[in-house]
Design brief:
339 residues
Length: 339
């Protein structure tokens, strides 16, 4: 898409709307900056303050909060690319580049990753999308991801994807996209024996963040998980006891998505709720919330044949950052080593 073209209308399947990076129509190295309108700065400020609340921050992982202080974002103004690079590149050698593409195709995305370049879109959500936007906008890219890129751990995690992706078969590429989606975008991690939000997609999306935090409380309220015991072990036990039904739900969601029945957030929630009825799975206990938490099980993640962009009914939890490192390596390293 060039700057003069009308942006595509979202149909619920961003993956199919992915765009190639066309160097002819991209921001040049010398010209990465945009003049934002005061309305855009105000939207940024409202989004920033919406998340930057003690009762929400307590549910985000430490790695994010440390990175956020290192990145020193101005709550009232969208940062320039130069400002971001000044804070990121000296720490992890990653670089930020602006793109006119609203959703970059994975092949182009990972070619940039191989050069330690993280693309940020020039699109910011509008006022009517404050609660939920299916598209990763500038707030998602900057606020959700970039604090982490000041940190060695995240840079190391992100460094794993491109070498594997660029050597992967088509089938493996699909799994790699899921692994990235359910870790860096929609992953959770256990810290101090509590579930914490890690993924940028949850952090930058009010609806996703609210639903996730509500699920943390519900798991305890409905005595699914006792927070005085080991929370990850209990989640693992619950998951193993219900794995078959989790897989049936995944298959059902994907089937509905393939038939175009999940093309909006509302529609997504409603059809998933009706899936429980169709599949005769009681919405109680482990399945009693708006989202399902499951351990970061590569087999289950790989089973999701198509990332459901309009709606995320399931989030995956790593026991620790070390475990995330190991689990990602278990799939990505053997592929990367082929090179
Ligand atoms: Fe993202």
């Amino acid at each position: 898409m060039t700057k003069n073209q009308t942006p595509p209308i979202y149909t619920g399947d961003i993956a199919s709307q992915g765009q190639h990076i066309d160097p002819e129509h991209e921001y040049s190295t010398e010209n990465q900056e945009i003049t934002f309108s005061s309305e855009q700065h105000e939207i940024w400020a409202d989004l920033f303050n919406g998340v930057h609340q003690p009762y929400l921050l307590e549910h985000l992982c430490r790695e994010f909060k440390d990175g956020l202080s290192l990145l020193e974002l101005d709550p009232r103004h969208i940062p320039t690319v130069a400002y971001l690079n000044d804070h990121i590149t000296p720490r992890t050698s990653w670089r930020i580049e602006r793109t006119v593409v609203r959703y970059t195709l994975a092949d182009d995305w990972y070619k940039k990753f191989a050069q330690r370049i993280f693309l940020i879109t020039d699109y910011l959500r509008t006022r009517d999308q404050m609660e939920f936007t299916p598209e990763p906008d500038m707030f998602h890219d900057i606020f959700g991801h970039l604090p982490y890129l000041t940190k060695e751990f995240y840079a190391r995690i992100e460094d794993k994807f491109a070498p594997a992706y660029l050597l992967a078969t088509q089938e493996e590429k699909e799994v790699i996209k899921r692994l990235a989606w359910y870790s860096t975008e929609f992953g959770l991690v256990v810290e101090d024996n509590r579930f914490k939000v890690f993924g940028a997609g949850i952090i930058s999306g009010r609806a996703e963040l609210a639903n996730t935090i509500m699920e943390f409380y519900r798991l305890s309220r409905d005595t699914v998980i006792d927070y005085t015991g080991n929370v990850f072990e209990q989640l693992n036990e619950q998951f193993l006891a219900h794995k078959n039904d989790v897989h049936r739900l995944i298959d059902g969601v994907n089937d509905l998505h393939r038939h175009g029945q999940m093309s909006s957030q509302d529609q997504g929630w409603n059809v998933v709720h009706s899936l429980y009825e169709t599949l005769k799975i009681d919405r109680e206990g482990y399945f009693g919330g708006e989202v399902i938490l499951a351990p970061f099980d590569v087999e289950t993640i790989a089973r999701i044949p198509k990332t459901v962009y309009a709606f995320n009914p399931m989030f995956f939890v790593c026991e620790s950052f070390e475990q995330m490192d190991e689990l990602l390596d278990s799939y990505l390293k053997p592929i990367a080593l082929r090179g």
